[in-house]
Amino acid sequence: MLTMKLSHLILFVPVLLALSCKKENVQLQQKLSNAKNDAVEVTKDTANITLSWNKTYQKIEGFGAFGGRITPFFESPKRDSIMNYLWGETGLQLTIIRGKIIRSYPFDKQSGVVTIKPAGSDIDMDVNGAEYKKLTEDQKEQIGQLWILKKAKERYQLPIMFASAWTPPLYMKTNPDSESAKNFNGLNFKCCSTDFARYISGFTKAYQNEGINFYAISPTNEPENIFSDWDASYWDSKHLGEFLTNNLRPALNDAGLTSTKIISSENAAWGTANSFLSGMDKSNVDILAGHGYVEIGDLIFGKRGLNQNPKPWTFSTGNKPVWLTETSDDGGTYDGTITGGLKLATSMHKFLAECNVSAFVYWLGMLAVKNNESLIGTNSDGSLEFPKTYDVMGQFSKAIHPGYVRFDSKLQNNSTLKISAYKDPVSGKFSLVVINPGQKAVICKLRLDGFTAGLLNAYQTTESNTRWQNSAPIAVKSNGIFEIMVPATGVITFTGNKG
């Protein structure tokens, strides 16, 4: 307990220093913005950043979140506001939503029809009314998800909606009495491989009939997790590869869902996904995916939370897109400060700039309590809580849109900052995200290689500022260099247009 308290104190010190330097940082940024000549004084530890337009990496497909704990989200009196805060233009502008292939749908084995809406119910029914209260908990989850996904599609025209299966229907498992994967409880291949594949395709088809065309589906969620109590299903890589090839792809094709992509394997830890996928038949996998929690070795020593140092996968991905489909800080102690925000920023940087992921999806969009597992929490009085992880997510999601491509960014004369750059090849818009976990503001000289730009706009997240606080536009100097300030213990995003 003493060690934990000391670590929290150490993490809090940079925040105090950042607050004490706020006035100085603002004055410095203003000085740079109003400079009349090239002789602006800079600190000795000036960082040099070079952006090279013509050297490119992965295409970005978007940022997203799971639709909350479905029933609390659906029942929340603030659900419309929450939708806007996550996917709306004035919110995070997320472009991906993750759903769940719920295990409890009625399923007609003969016809392959899955019923995703309880008979006689309507998605706009009053959650405080008598008819809703008559529904079972499973039925509330079913209709709740249908409302969330339909409203998200109608209001925000999200380009990517996908769904994952935590577990097959229980009667299809080796131990039908347990929803967990304990004791290697998983799909009973002797009887139910075809049935589960048709269940997934029936679910996908039923949503298509409601106007929701899933971009992709995943038959597994953390298939190696045989320890937790929640709904899960054990898979090994051999059987999963066989299931995709022999059962799922044919079932989707038979249902006319030939364009629906398959995601796999969504292991909890990035390193585990590397091991799992490397030995698996991936011929019918369209999107390679893992989650962003700490590695198994960290778990053994009691560590939880966001993976701060994921490693690039060692197997050839065959030019298939790589997605991070779930992550959060599941450490248990709520931290809405910039300390928690910088943990997310570091993790996002590592996955995007080092592991080359094309999509980054947070675990929960909202919770009815305050918890680091969600981007939006709820206070005891019903008001919404926005931790700094929400603000940090916006530093990326509001400035990097589907179709952007990561391009080369080099950092010299500094070992503290983390930088990554993204561009729209069509419009010429570009964004530079700079993370500074250090206690001092840093002055940077920014050089553009292979392109020019006239002005840079910037917004930032620190402990004390308003959400996505704008700074004055920064003009290029006569020598072609931008001089920019990166605030202490914060994240700043610069945006511009190719000249």
TrEMBL record:
Gene Ontology biological-process entries: sphingolipid metabolic process
GO molecular function: glucosylceramidase activity
Protein name in UniProt: Glycosyl hydrolase
Keywords: Coiled coil, Glycosidase, Hydrolase, Signal
All residue ranges annotated as the Glycosyl hydrolase family 30 TIM-barrel domain in the record: 77-254
Entry similarity comment: Belongs to the glycosyl hydrolase 30 family.
One Gene Ontology cellular component: membrane
Any coiled-coil regions, as ranges: 18-45
InterPro entries (UniProt xref): GH (IPR017853), Glyco_hydro_30 (IPR001139), Glyco_hydro_30_TIM-barrel (IPR033453), Glyco_hydro_b (IPR013780)
Pfam families: Glyco_hydro_30 (PF02055)
Lineage: Bacteria, Pseudomonadati, Bacteroidota, Sphingobacteriia, Sphingobacteriales
